[in-house]
Amino acid sequence: MRQFVIKWSVVVWIAAALMLDFFHCSGLQMSLRPVDLNLNQTVDIHLVDGACISGVIAQMSSDRIGVLTVDRNIIELNRDTIDYITGPEPIFDSQGILVPEKDIESVQNSLNLTTHAVFGGLISLGVGLFSGALLSDQVYKPDNVEFIASVSALSTACGGYFFARSGAIKDREVAIEKIIKQRNDLSSDIRLAEEADEKLIRERIETLIREQNEKNLEIDSLRREIRALDMESENSQ
Fold first, then answer.
1. Residue 67, pLDDT score
2. CB contact at 8 A, 20 and 158
């Protein structure tokens, strides 16, 4: 029984470690096709010689890609030297315009990350203490403090990491929603301003036409008065 419990405990913790490694490596990263890249998009370009260039797409042509690195240098790469490209999933607003990662990071906070990490760690600690006590009862003598503490620490670390990562993803989603809302509000304001400008222009044109018509009527009236005066002058002669 003791060997059985030890064996499956090891399997469970190895599986947890592999899941941690998987989520750590994948994260928000995804494989990107060169033909789908956009200007201002954050990427990691892996070259065929094993090098990796990280930065933001600054230039693109049919055969070359220019990457603006963190030290503000532009590195131009031939497309045939690129092995594969990874990076965060590109986010677009309602107008189909890319939302750069720097914009997302500028409004993103760590509220959900902190909250999830704290509460997730506490929950995982409780689960670890319970699991450790049960395993200790089967493997060692009851209440083996060192064993229970080890299981609890591992459980807290794994659980805290998963919950914190979930919170970080939520923080990113909130930041994206905020930016898209800001852009939509700005677009709405611009449309309203354009509509207001068009209305003012139409009203001004209508006013000018009305004033011109009034002037034409006044001119016609003056012309009639002049003709009447001329006729009276002719009759008096």
1. 93
2. yes
